[in-house]
Amino acid sequence: MGDLLHDLIQLVGLVPLWSGVIFCGLAVLGMFRFPDVYARLHASGKVSTMGMAGLLLGTALIMPSTLLKGIVLAIFVVITSPYRPISSL
Questions:
Q1: Which of 29, 51, 59, 86 is the most buried (most CB within 10 A)?
Q2: Is residue 87 domain-resident?
Q3: How many helical (H) and strand (E) elements, i.e. helices and strands, does the chain have?
Q4: What's the mean pLDDT when you consider all of the chain?
Q5: 79: Cβ contacts below 8 Å, ≥ 6 apart
Q6: Helix, strand or coil for residue 11?
Q7: Which residues contact 27 (CB under 8 A, 6 or more apart)?
Q8: How many domains does the chain have?
């Protein structure tokens, strides 16, 4: 039973980990493809929020010894990241 639970937690941890990797890859692609400085800043700002939070949460789930540190770091990244509310557009 313990091995099944361990494997299930690792599979659940892979979802945010791979989503973080995909966000980081798309941000790198955006840095090359976007035409001006402001659009490139937008791409780099999104990777700091979504990509890093996904990588940290996935790592925290896969490695239980770093669970508390990963969650605290992910919360810190989300709180301190550049944010522009939709209502200000």
A1: 51
A2: no
A3: 4, 0
A4: 82
A5: none
A6: helix
A7: 43, 44, 46, 47, 51
A8: 1
